[in-house]
Model the fold of this input.
Amino acid sequence: MKRFASVFGVLLCAFISFVAALYLFFPMDTALELLWRKGMLAAAEKGVTLETAFVGVDEYFPLRIVFRNVRVAAPVASAEAGMLTVRPLFVESILSMSPTAEIRLENFSLGIPLPGQPPIAFSTFYSKSSVRASAIQLSGIQTTGDLVIVGDLTVNPATAKLDEADLHISGERASLLEFAKTMLPLQKDASGAWTLKRKGGENK
Done:
């Protein structure tokens, strides 16, 4: 998880900054190919493999970038998505002084390090993501699939630990959270749904 968080933060920050700088000056597809190659090299240095079958511009105004058949693999976990869409939010990035973008995933699966358990499958995933040196923030999270997740979270990219969270989690495979309740401040309600709440500074 630490590797995933670190790579995600570096890639999102580099992606938005790079796209903003080149948006009006270079052919976008060429710039994206260059950025993706740099991202692959940066990820490989951390032991993470990045693959995609296609990267290109879906729309220019507003700018929307599409990645198809994306795969991320690390020694203990993996993730795949049929489509990843990134919409950089330039005005918000400038006002907050942190790269910000809308992230959408379709046909997304997350491999988990539990023997006998298949990957967790999501039909859709959405969040507004922003990156600072000290935090990766995912706000307005909404998912459909094996787990239905709604809420916000903030991850420390240096440690891959949750700094803050306010999530409601339900769905067919919500019982998997039984394995995580000793490590995270999870509470289960009578319906079988879970809440995950953490304020900055809490240990668990």
